[in-house]
Amino acid sequence: MERPSHTVLYPHGGGRFGNQLLRQAHWLAWACEHRGAVRVVNLAFWPYAHAFATWRRYPGCVFPLQRGWIDLLARLLGGVATLGAKRSAWRGRHLIGRLIASLPGVVSISDDGRPDRAIDLCSEGFVAGVFRRRLTVCAGWYMSGWPLLERHEARVLDLLAPSPELSETVAARVQGWRRDYDVLIGVFMRGTDYREWRGGRYCYSTERYAEWMREAEQLFAPLRVGFLVTSDESRDPAFFQRLSWRFSSGTVGGDGDWLDAFLELANCDYILSPPSTFAACAAWLGGRKLWALREASMSLAFSQVLSHPLFAARSDSAFGDAVQ
Question: What are 236-268's pLDDT values in tens digits?
């Protein structure tokens, strides 16, 4: 098979796991649309490649799929565990992007982290610019091609299937938890940076989350409802008295990590969450229902369950703040 004539290198941008997963989805859809003509190399996805069946085998994150020396480099810079090593790897990926962007004939495109400079991967100008040169370096948060992602959704979901070594273990764990319930609802609680993001609009109290859980229990009565609580900070269990609940393995202080939390949410029937790319992607990859917590004053209703966990989230009045 002849190699594509044009390559896009994406060295950084897009935040943490949920946002990086969505950027990978957009780049894959874009490459599927222009299959045979372009190749995408996503350095920013290296730290997460091990979590996915395809990218565990191709850690260099080159699409169309291709093995090579870049897989060795990806394992070196993407598989580190300590905080210091992760920072060094992050700097290494940035350095690679800068060095390649400085080569003759290479053009660098960036949104500078500004939504008003968002780059539409579907635009004729962007595509024509890439096709005018052999190598383009793109970096930033706001790069997307939603119509292409809708068109190639099935293929992208296949490429983003979680690694069986991880997903099957988590699925069995969650199945054990749900035996006593008719409905299992994942509750994703955000604190930390949500106190600042959007002026703290979506940073809800533990007490408010507990009230929503009781409302959900009433809505589903007489079905037996269980709750799997995932949080990025410690939560007082006293607020959840008389509810059937447990913390996820990936909750802060648990024996798991962010990936456990993601896969456990993806195995719940519903995910109850404030605007979050992490929650939206968990529902999307898991084929689950996303229940939007748009504001602290709202009461729960089934009408708040989004018709599609990703595409409806993107156009939602609140979730659209996160899913871009």
Answer: 999 999 999 999 999 988 888 999 999 999 999
Asked whether the beta carbons of 60 and 180 are under 8 A apart, the reply is no
d(CA 35, CA 201): 41
Burial class of 175 by CB neighbour count within 10 A (0 to 12, 13 to 18, 19+)? exposed
- Provide DSSP, 264-278: HHTTSSEEEESS-HH
pLDDT tens, 182-222?
999 999 999 999 999 999 999 999 999 999 999 999 999 99
Spatial separation of the C-alpha atoms in residues 180 and 173, rounded to whole Å: 13
Q: Roughly how many angstroms between the first and final C-alpha of the chain, as a whole number?
A: 34
Q: Tally helices (H) and strands (E) across the chain.
A: 12, 12
Please give the DSSP secondary-structure letter assigned to residue 116.
G
Rounded distance between C-alpha atoms, residue 159 and residue 138, angstroms: 21
Could you identify the residue written with the tokens 């292409």?
A: 148
How far apart, in whole angstroms, are the C-alpha atoms of residue 127 and residue 136? 11
pLDDT in tens, 106-135: 989 999 889 899 999 999 999 999 999 999
- Contact in structure between 33 and 148 (CB atoms under 8 Å): yes
Asked if residue 145 lies in contact with residue 29, where contact means CB atoms within 8 angstroms, the answer is: yes
Q: Which fold has domain 164-321?
A: Rossmann fold (3.40.50)
Asked whether the bond before 275 is cis by omega within 30 degrees of 0, the reply is no
* pTM for the full predicted model: 0.95
22 contacts 121 by C-beta, under 8 angstroms? no
Tokens found for residue 199: 């002026």
Q: Which residues contact 127 (CB under 8 A, 6 or more apart)?
A: 34, 121
Structural domain spans, the chain: 6-159, 164-321
For the CA atoms of 63, 64, 70, 73, the dihedral, rounded to the nearest 10 degrees, stands at: 40
